[in-house]
User: Which sequence fits this backbone?
C-alpha cells in the first residue's frame, strides 16, 4: 500500500480514540482539524487498513461497524448505559477455545466474545 497522509491521520485518530469508533465518528473527529477530508475517504481508508490487518473491523457489538486499532487477541465489553466499548484482555480465558474443541467435535477458527454491563464511569454517575 502506498503511503497516504490521509490514511496516516485516520490511523492516528483511531489509535487516539480507543472507543472502537464507527467510520462516522472517525470522520467527525478528523473533520474538526482537517475540513478537506471527506467521509468517503475515511470509509475507503478504514476498509483498506482492515483488509491489510493493520486495524480490525468489529461487528456484532451493536448495529454499527466499528474499527479497532488493537489487532491482538482480546475480548470486548460494551456498557449498556453509555455504549462505550472497552478491550478485555485475552489472557483472562486464553484456553477457552481449546476447552471447547476438547469437549466437542468442532474446530474453532475464530472467536469474538462480548461482555455487556455497566462501566465504572456510569456506575459512579448513579
Assistant:
Amino acid at each position: 500500500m502506498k503511503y497516504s497522509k490521509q490514511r496516516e491521520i485516520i490511523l492516528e485518530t483511531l489509535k487516539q480514540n480507543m472507543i472502537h469508533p464507527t467510520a462516522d465518528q472517525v470522520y467527525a473527529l478528523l473533520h474538526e482539524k482537517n475540513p478537506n477530508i471527506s467521509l468517503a475517504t475515511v470509509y475507503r481508508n478504514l476498509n483498506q487498513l482492515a483488509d491489510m490487518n493493520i486495524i480490525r473491523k468489529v461487528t456484532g457489538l451493536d448495529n454499527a461497524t466499528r474499527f479497532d486499532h488493537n489487532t491482538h487477541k482480546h475480548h470486548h465489553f460494551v456498557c449498556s448505559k453509555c455504549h462505550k466499548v472497552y478491550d478485555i484482555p485475552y489472557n483472562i480465558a486464553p484456553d477457552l477455545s481449546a476447552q471447547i474443541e476438547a469437549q466437542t467435535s468442532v474446530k474453532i477458527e475464530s472467536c469474538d466474545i462480548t461482555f455487556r454491563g455497566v462501566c465504572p464511569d456510569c456506575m459512579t454517575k448513579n
DSSP finds five helices and five strands in the chain.
